[in-house]
Amino acid sequence: MASSSEQEFVPLYRARLNHFSRHCGLWDSRSAAHVGNKLTLRLHNIHVSAVCIDLQDELSRPLHLHQLVLPLFDSVRRASVLVHGAEKLWVTGSVLMSSIRNGRSGF
Predict the structure, then answer these.
(1) What distances in angstroms separate CA 44 from CA 32, 41, 76, one per listed residue?
(2) Residue 62 falls inside a structural domain
């Protein structure tokens, strides 16, 4: 019996992990704002005023995942919690999106 951790299943698992879900109605800017507000309340309860994201990890994700996480970071930032690294993600995401819209993507 084959294990799911065998090397032949790793590419399939990664492909499924990064697959763009067609169920965009589950996560939009409204739900991201709601989750960001809840997260901010919990962070304030434990006296956390700043968080740091791993920018290299976020940049290694596909572009459609950037678009899903940016409203969450923005919601947390607007609720007075500093998100270190998110500003660089915003700049990178907007540059990539504008180049894709103009047909100059290097992908």
Answers:
(1) 18, 5, 11
(2) yes
